[in-house]
Structure formats: C-alpha cells, structure tokens
Predict the 3D structure of the following.
Amino acid sequence: MSESQKDKKPILLSGIQPSGHLALGNYVGAMRNWVNLQEDYLGIFIVVDMHAITVRQKPADLRNRCLSFAAQYLAAGIDPEENIIFIQSHVPQHAELAWILNCYTYMGELNRMTQFKDKSKRHNDNINAGLYSYPALMAADILLYQSDLVPVGADQKQHLELTRDIANRFNNTYSPTFKVPKPFIPKAGARIMSLQEPEKKMSKSDSNANNYIALLDPPDVLRRKIKRAVTDSAREITPDSLQNPGIGNLLTIFSTLNDLDVNEVVNRFAGQQYSVFKGELADSLVAFLEPFQQRYNKIMDEKGYLTSILDESAQRARYMASKTLSKVYRKIGFVAPGRPR
Ligand code: ATP
Ligand code: LTN
C-alpha cells in the first residue's frame, strides 16, 4: 500500500509496559484486537518503557524486555510493513506533551485512578510522582497521533476516559487540537483473571509465576499451570460453572482461544470432569503458543531486522508527533524558536 493510502486510514494506537512477562491476559485483552483490527487502521503499537519505570526495573532486564516485547508484537501477527512499532523513549515528544498535559489534569482526577491505588499498595516503598501522574503520559501517547481507536483491556477504561476529558478540556480552552479517541474493549476476555487467585486480574508482573500464563512459557509449563489452576469443589462442568471465578475464567480463556461463545463451550463440556476440560484447554494453549514461539525465536535470531523496524517506525512517529506538539505549543502561547523576540 502507498504512503498516501496509509495516511488516509484512521489511527489505531495501543501500548504495553515492558514489565514482567507478556501474558495471556495482555494477548486476549489487547494484542488480539490489534491484530484483528490492523487491516482497517494504521496501527501504532508502542513498547511503553517510560511507563514501566514507574515501578523499579533492573536496567538489563528492561533493555532486553523492550526488544523481546516488540518481537512478540510481530510474532502475534502485527505486520511491520503496514504499521508503526516503536519504543516510547525513542520519541521524545511523549515526555514533552506529557508535561503539558500534566498542567491540564487535576489532582482530584488522578486521585480517583484505581491502578494508582492498586500499584501504591503493591509497591508501598516506592509511591513516586510518575506513578501518580502516569495517566497524563498515557494521554500524551494517544493524543500525539490524533488516534481514533485505542484497543485495551477493561482495566484501562478509566485511563481512557481521563484521556478523553483532557482532550476535550484542551480543545474547549483553545480550539480543536486533539482528536477525542474511542476505547475498544472486547466483549469477551477484557479481564482475564489470575490462575491461583481468580478474584484478581492476571498480571504479567505478578510475583507468583503460577498466576499468569506467559506467552513464552514452554509446553510443559503451560500444562502444569493449567492443571494447577484453582477451580472449586465441584468436579464437572455445568452451566453454573460460569459463576465460579476460577473455572469460569478457564472457560472464558478456552472460548477466546477457539473463537467460540462461552455458552457454546459450556454446552460442549457439560457433564465432563474438570480434568478433561483442563486437558483440552492445555492442548488449545499449546497449539496456539507453539507457532507463536517459533515465530518469536526466528525474529529474535534476526535482531538487525527488528532494530531496523523499530528505528524506521520511531522516525515516522517523531514526524507525526512533532506536528501535534508544535500545534500545542503555539496554542498555549510558547514562542516558536528562531522568531524575533
Ligand atoms: P503489570 O502487571 O506489569 O503492571 P499488566 O499485565 O497489568 O502489567 P499492562 O502493561 O498494564 O499489563 O497492560 C497492557 C494491556 O493488557 C492493556 O491494554 C491492559 O488493559 C491489558 N491487560 C492487562 N491485564 C489484562 C487482563 N488480565 N485481562 C485482559 N486484558 C489485560
Ligand atoms: N497504561 C497502559 C499502557 C499504555 C497504553 C498507552 C495503552 C501506555 N500508553 C496508550 C493504550 C494506549 C497499561 O496497560 N497499563
């Protein structure tokens, strides 16, 4: 497709923090929809390393994870010829717009963010200002590119609503500057739950690796994690199984992996032992993740190819982002450099 045709497509934008191990929750809640929607949009997919440092990261791990996550975006089926895939810190406009948007975001709004409250509890030795003002950086990520649609899991709904409020506030204070983006939250799988503690969401940085399925887990580990996943004291699948957080979550995972409605899955396994269902779920997971991992390994063997995609994408992103940022600077009254004072 020519550059001008690409430019006419609406913009789809999303990002994942390079923390922990990319997990099935991230895939089902977000990445799967990036892949499904990429035909009709120009996709901008970011490895948001600046967000990741709101929680302390080991430098060498962070460096490796940025490349590994970008390779997993490609392995999931994002076409690098048609989309823009880059590392957030390669595009300085994100930090620049984030500062401005911080000045258009109220503390009262940030105080309501549940992710801040959750992460402050989990990391109570490091409740830093970045963790608190993180939604302004996320708004900058999205608004810099005049994004139309943002595919995310349900936990990001609140941040998306705040992004829309910030965009409207800025537009109303000055004149239309930012496109007001819409969230895309899937009907099924928007909140995949933890395997051992199914009342909380599956999180890729969970300190207990048995709580998540990593996209790079080898088959024996996948099978073991599913086998050990918490269910309830009943032994077989019934329509009531959907009400149980543990087995209900496994049924949802099966339905999304096999593109079935969850009620169809219940009908298919009704009366069967949990162990039989778990065996089939593990087979589906292995069948899905084995080819994913092969593609991933191939991409990681050609790091030069990967870094050239990231470099070219970052260059395009800087160009797109600088257009929005100069508009913003002009509207708020910053003097353009080089003009007579
Ligand atoms: P961490 O544990 O490292 O903070 P996380 O697993 O919560 O990370 P994020 O980087 O915050 O992942 O999220 C990346 C994307 O994955 C977001 O769109 C988010 O909504 C989605 N996502 C995260 N966890 C889940 C989940 N359990 N179910 C569905 N979607 C999810
Ligand atoms: N805050 C998101 C990650 C994120 C994001 C974005 C998602 C950062 N910038 C822009 C969509 C669009 C999270 O998952 N914690």
